[in-house]
Design a protein that fits this description.
six-stranded mixed beta sheet; alpha+beta; five-stranded antiparallel beta sheet
Length: 374
C-alpha cells in the first residue's frame, strides 16, 4: 500500500458471497453493506460468524465466492484471485484488542501508518487520540490503562489507516454493561462520520438492535432472515429465528375466530375452557394451527384484575416458578394450563412479594403477540 492509497476516502460499498468448508462444517453466506452503515451478524456460538469475518479479511481461503471491498475485488474463485490480508484495507477489531505491549498508546495507534510521512502520521495519531478521549495517555503502555481505554486505543489503531471496511468481532464482550453502552454509541458515530461500512458479530440482542442498520441472522453456517433489526429480532416470524433470539413463549394454538373489524383474531389451545389470546390479524383462518410468540418482557404482572386497561389479554394464573434471570427474574405463571414466562425486576419482585403459589394476572397487548412459522 502506498501513501496515496492509504489516504483515499472509504469507498461506497462492500459486498460478496462465499462458500467455505472445513471438516464437517460448511459456511454459505452473502452480504452487502453501504458506506457508513453497520451490518450485524447475529447468531449463536459456532454459527460461522467469526469465520465469515476472517474470510473477508483474507485470514481463511474460501473454496468458492467473490469478495468486494470498496471498488476492489479482493477474492474471486472463478478468476483465481486472492489479495493478501495486508492489501485489503480492512480493519479488524476483536474482543482481545491485541495491542502491542511494548508500544505506547500513540505507538499502537500509529503502527499501521508506516507508509505515510512522519508529519501525516503524527497528525493522524493526534486526531484519533482527541477523538477517543485518550489525551494524557499517549505514552502509557497497554497494561497501564483501563479496559475501556484499551478498547478505545484498539479501535483508534484499526481506524488510523482509514480502512475501506471495519470488521468487529464481539469487541465489547470483556467490558461491563455501562461501558459497553457508551462505547457502542461512540463507535457507531465514528463509523458514520467516516463513512466506513462495518460488519459486527454479536449474539447480544440489545447490541444488535442498538447499533445495526441491518441484521443478518446466521446459524449452522447458513444465513436466515435479514433486514431491519427490530423487525427481524423484535418479533421474529420464523421458528428458527424465534428460538435463536430466545423468545421465551412459543405457544402452539389454533385460530378460534377472526375479527377483521378490530384487526385481530382469537387463538386457543383446545376446547372452550382454556385461556384464549387475542393476537394481530394474519393470513390464516378459523381452525388453522399456529404458533404464537410472546416475549417475556412484554408481559406485565398484576396482583388483581386490571380495570380500564386497553390491553386485550388479561389472564389469571398461579405462580409455579421464580428464578434469577439477570438483569432481573423470570416468573412462570400457570394460566389454566397455559404457562407464561414473564420478566420482572428485582424491585418489582420484592415489592409484590412474588413467590410460588401466588395468584397473579398476566397482562399484555394483542400487538405484543406475533405468529411464528416454521
Amino acid at each position: 500500500m502506498n501513501q496515496t492509497d492509504a489516504l483515499q476516502p472509504a469507498p461506497r460499498l462492500t459486498r460478496g458471497w462465499l462458500q467455505y468448508r472445513i471438516g464437517e462444517f460448511s459456511l454459505d453466506a452473502r452480504w452487502e453493506v453501504e458506506a457508513g452503515q453497520l451490518l450485524t451478524l447475529f447468531g449463536p456460538s459456532g454459527a460461522g460468524k467469526t469465520t465469515l469475518l476472517r474470510a473477508i479479511a483474507g485470514l481463511v481461503h474460501p473454496q468458492e465466492g467473490s469478495i468486494e471491498v470498496g471498488d476492489h475485488i479482493v477474492f474471486d474463485s472463478a478468476g483465481n484471485l486472492f489479495v493478501p490480508p495486508h492489501r485489503r484495507r480492512v480493519g479488524f477489531l476483536t474482543q482481545g484488542y491485541h495491542l502491542f505491549p511494548h508500544l505506547s498508546v500513540a505507538g499502537n495507534i500509529g503502527y499501521g501508518l508506516a507508509h505515510t510521512t512522519p508529519l501525516n502520521r503524527q497528525n493522524r495519531v493526534s486526531e484519533l487520540i482527541e477523538m477517543f478521549q485518550l489525551n494524557g495517555l499517549e505514552h502509557r503502555r497497554p497494561y497501564e490503562i483501563s479496559g475501556g481505554q484499551q478498547q478505545r486505543a484498539a479501535l483508534a489503531r484499526a481506524l488510523a489507516p482509514e480502512p475501506a471496511l471495519m470488521l468487529l468481532d464481539e469487541p465489547f464482550n470483556s467490558l461491563d454493561v455501562e461501558l459497553r453502552r457508551t462505547l457502542r454509541g461512540e463507535l457507531r458515530e465514528t463509523l458514520q462520520a467516516a463513512a466506513i461500512p462495518a460488519i459486527l458479530v454479536t449474539h447480544d440482542i440489545e447490541e444488535a438492535v442498538s447499533m445495526a442498520d441491518q441484521v443478518q441472522t446466521i446459524d449452522g453456517g447458513r444465513v436466515g432472515p435479514a433486514g431491519n433489526p427490530l423487525e427481524v429480532l423484535g418479533q421474529p416470524g420464523q421458528g428458527r429465528v424465534a428460538r435463536l433470539v430466545g423468545v421465551e413463549n412459543l405457544i402452539p394454538m389454533r385460530v378460534a375466530s377472526v375479527q377483521p373489524q378490530d384487526g385481530t383474531m382469537v387463538c386457543a389451545q383446545q376446547g372452550d375452557e382454556v385461556p384464549r389470546l387475542e393476537v394481530p390479524l394474519s393470513d390464516v383462518g378459523p381452525g388453522d394451527q399456529v404458533t404464537v410468540g410472546i416475549r417475556a418482557s412484554d408481559i406485565i404482572l398484576a396482583d388483581s384484575e386490571p380495570r380500564g386497561s386497553s390491553a386485550r389479554n388479561r389472564l389469571p394464573g398461579v405462580v409455579s416458578d421464580v428464578r434469577l434471570r439477570p438483569p432481573g427474574y423470570q416468573v412462570t405463571l400457570n394460566c389454566g394450563g397455559l404457562d407464561l414466562r414473564c420478566h420482572i425486576t428485582g424491585t418489582s419482585l420484592n415489592e409484590m412479594g412474588i413467590e410460588a403459589g401466588n395468584n397473579l394476572w398476566a397482562v399484555f397487548k394483542a400487538s405484543s403477540c406475533f405468529l411464528v412459522r416454521d
